[in-house]
Amino acid sequence: MASAETAAEHERILREIESTDTNCIGPTLRSVYDGQEHGLFMDKLEGRIRNHDREIEKMCNHHFQGFVDSITELLKVRGEAQKLKCQVTETNQKLQNDGKELLTSMDELRQCRLQQRNIATTIDKLTHCLPVLEMYSKLQEQMRAKRYYPALRTLEQLEESCLPQAGSYRFCGIMSENIPRLRTHIRDVSMSDLKDFLESIRKHSDKIGETAMKQAQVQIARDNAVTSQQRSASGRRIRKEACSGTEVDRTGSNPFSEKDSGILDVEDEEKDEIPGAQDLVDFSPVYRCLHIYTVLGARDTFENYYRKQRRKQARLVLQPHSNMHETLEGYRRYFNQIVGFFVVEDHILHTTQGLVNRAYVEELWELALSKTIAALRTHSSYCTDPDLILDLKNLIVLFADTLQGYGFPVNQLFDMLLEMRDQYGEILLKKWNQSFRQILDQDNYSPIPVASPEEYQRIAGQFPFQDPELDKMPFPKKLPFSEFVPKVYSQLKEFIYACLKYSEDLHLSSTEIDDMIRKSTNLLLTRTLSHCLQYAIKKKNVGLAELVQIIINTTHLEQSCHYLEEFISNITNVPPDTINATKLYGTSTFKDARHAAEEEIYTNLNQKIDQFLQLADYDWTAAQGGAQASDYLSDLIAFLCSTFAVFTHLPGNAIEHATLPGKVAQTACMSACKHLSTSLLQLLLEGDVRQVSMGALQQFNVDVKECERFARAGPVPGFQGDTLLLAFIDLRQLLDLFTQWDWSTYLADYGRPTCKYLRVNPQTALTLLEKISLSMKDTSRKNNMFAQFRKNERDKQKLIDTVVKQLRNLIATNQA
C-alpha cells in the first residue's frame, strides 16, 4: 500500500517536472530529497529519461530525410544568398551615398523644426511675460513719479491678471513677494504725504483764512456797490419820469444803461480775482491717500485718522494767544486761522464722498463757535480803546459773513456783538467823560466874542443857535454862552455817530438802531455829562460868575435837545414820534445841572457870608454902642452889592434865557439875606456869649439896620415892596422888643395874629434876656459905690426876674 502511494507521488512529481518551468523546479526536488525513497525516484526518473530519448530518436529517424534535403537546399541557397548579399551591399552603399545629403537636409530640417517650436514656445511665454514686465516697469515708473494711486491700481492689475497668466517663473515669484511690501510702502508714503499736507494747512490756514475773508469783503463791497447804483439809477429814473414822464430813448432800449446797473463795474472787478482756497492749497495728497486707503480696504482707518488729526488742529487753532487783545492784528490772525480751517473742511466736504460729513463739520463748528465766543468775551473785556472795539466789531462781522457764505450758522456771533455793544458803550462813556472834563476845564466861562459874520456862521454850524435880536446887532458882538456849549454839542453828535458806526452791518432794523442810539445817548447825558457838570459846579475856587455862566450854558443846551432828537431821527430814518420810541433825557439832565448850579450859588453866597461873619468882633460888655455899622458888615454889604451887580449887568438875552436876575437872582438875594439874618441871630444867642450889655445890643441893632438898608435899596430888581425886608423881620422884632423894653405888650399879645412881636420866640427872648440880666448884675457889682444907682438897678433886676418867670411859664404852657 505504501509503495503504491510512493509510486503515485513519484509520478506526480515527474509530471510536475515535465510541465513546470525549470526556474520553479526547486521545491519539487526538495520534496523528493526530504522523503525516504530517493533511490526509487532516481530509478523512476532515469526510466522516464530513457523513454523520452527513445521518442526523440524515433522522431529524428522519422524526419531525418527531410532534414538532409533541407540541408542540401540550404547549401544551394547559400551561393545565391552570397550574391544577394553583395547586391544588397552595393545597393545599401549606393543608398547610403545617395541618402547622406538627404539625412543632412533632414537633420537640418529637424533642427529648424525644433528651433521653430522653441521660438513659438518662447513667443507664447513672452506673450504672457511681457505684460508682466511692462506692468512692473510701469509700476516702477509710477513709484518714481510718486503717482501712488495709479501705482496701486497697476499693482492690483499685476497681481490679479498678469502674474497668474505668466506662469511660475522666478521673476514672477520675486514680484509676488514684493507686492505686499510695495503696498505697505505706498500706504506709508501716502500717509506721510497726508501728514505733510496736514502740517502745511495748519501753517498756512492763516493765509487761507485771510484770502477767504478778502473774497467775502470784495463780494460785500460789490453787492453794496450794485445796490447803491441800482438805487441811484432808480432815483434818477424816478426824477426823470417826474419831469418828463415815462419815456424810452430813441433806440428803444431800456433807460437804465449797463453801467448804471453795475454790471460793467462787477466785470471789471472780476479781472482782479482773488484766488480761492483750492488755488492756495494742493488737496491731491488727501484725495490720493483717500483713494489708496479705499483700494487697500482701510478707508475707515483713514477717515478716523484724518478726523482725529483735524480735531487736534481745531483745538490748537481755537486757542488764542495770551496777548491777542492788545492789537487788532492779533484778532485778525486768530480769525484768519479759524476761517482757513473751516474753508479747508468745507472744501473737503464738497469734494470727497464721506471723508467728512455734515454732522462732523457742524460738530467742529459748534465747538469752534463756543470757544471763539468765550475767547472774544474774555479778551475784549480787557480792551479800553473804543476804536479798537469798533475795528474788532467790523472784523467779527466780516468773520461771520465769510463763514456764513460757506453755510455755517453765525447767529451766536451777532448775539455776542450785541453783548459787546454795552461794553463799547461803557468805553465810549469813559472816553467822552474825559472829553467833557477837558472841555469844562479849558473853558473860560465867558460869553463868546464874535468879530465877523464868518465866525458867527462857523459857531452857528456847530451849535443850533437862533436869536433874531442878536442877529440884528452889529459886529463885534457876544454870544450869551461860552465855548463849552458848541463843543459839548459837537461831542454829543460825535458820540451818536460812534454809536451808529457800531450798529452798522449787525442786521438790525432802523427802529432797533434808533432805540440803541437813544439809550446810549441818554446814558451819556444822565450819567457822564451830568457828572461832569456836577464836577464843574462843585470843584473848588469856582466863582459866582462861572456858576452863572454854567446856568446860561445849560439853558441853551437844554433848548438844543430837540435838535439832537431830529439829528438822531435823520441818521436812523425813524420819525421821532414813533410809538415806543425812547425820548432823550437831555432836558432833565440840563435842568438838574442848572438847579445844582443855582444851589451852588446859594451855598457859595452863604459861605462868603459866613467868612465875613467870622470877622465879627463884638464887645458884648460895651457900655455904649457906636453910631456906624461894624467894619465886617460894611464889607459884607459891599460884597453883596457887587455880586448882585454882576447879575444885573449880564447881557440882556443871556439874562432872559437864564432867568437872571429874575428868579435865580431874587432867590439868591433872598437866600443870602435869610442866611445873614439867621447867622446874626445865632451870633447873638451862641453859648460862648454869656452876657450881652445894652450897649452891645445897640451896636448890633445898628448893624441890623445896615442890613435892612441894603434890603430896602433893592440890590436885585423884581421884589415887590419890602419883600426882601421880611428876611430880617425875626431879628428886627427881637431887637425892637429889647431896645424899647416893651415886655408888657409882648406878654399881653402873645399868640394873637395881630401881635406886634409875632416873630419873637419866647425861648429866644428868654435866652437873650438872661444874658442881659447877667450883664446888668455884673455891672451893678462894679458900680456898688453909687447908692443912687443901686435902687434903679434893683428895680430893673426885679422887672427882669418877673419877665423871666413869665417867659418860662409861657414856654412851659406851649410845650404842654
From TrEMBL:
<comment type="similarity">
    <text>Belongs to the SEC15 family.</text>
</comment>
<dbReference type="GO" id="GO:0005886">
    <property type="term" value="C:plasma membrane"/>
</dbReference>
<dbReference type="InterPro" id="IPR046361">
    <property type="entry name" value="EXOC6/Sec15_C"/>
</dbReference>
<keyword id="KW-0813">Transport</keyword>
<dbReference type="GO" id="GO:0000145">
    <property type="term" value="C:exocyst"/>
</dbReference>
<dbReference type="InterPro" id="IPR048359">
    <property type="entry name" value="EXOC6_Sec15_N"/>
</dbReference>
<comment type="function">
    <text>Component of the exocyst complex involved in the docking of exocytic vesicles with fusion sites on the plasma membrane.</text>
</comment>
<dbReference type="GO" id="GO:0090522">
    <property type="term" value="P:vesicle tethering involved in exocytosis"/>
</dbReference>
<feature type="domain" description="Exocyst complex subunit EXOC6/Sec15 C-terminal">
    <location>
        <begin position="412"/>
        <end position="771"/>
    </location>
</feature>
<dbReference type="InterPro" id="IPR007225">
    <property type="entry name" value="EXOC6/Sec15"/>
</dbReference>
<keyword id="KW-0268">Exocytosis</keyword>
<dbReference type="Pfam" id="PF20651">
    <property type="entry name" value="EXOC6_Sec15_N"/>
</dbReference>
<feature type="domain" description="Exocyst complex component EXOC6/Sec15 N-terminal">
    <location>
        <begin position="44"/>
        <end position="213"/>
    </location>
</feature>
<feature type="region of interest" description="Disordered">
    <location>
        <begin position="225"/>
        <end position="269"/>
    </location>
</feature>
<protein>
    <recommendedName>
        <fullName>Exocyst complex component</fullName>
    </recommendedName>
</protein>
<dbReference type="Pfam" id="PF04091">
    <property type="entry name" value="Sec15_C"/>
</dbReference>
<dbReference type="GO" id="GO:0006893">
    <property type="term" value="P:Golgi to plasma membrane transport"/>
</dbReference>
<dbReference type="GO" id="GO:0006886">
    <property type="term" value="P:intracellular protein transport"/>
</dbReference>
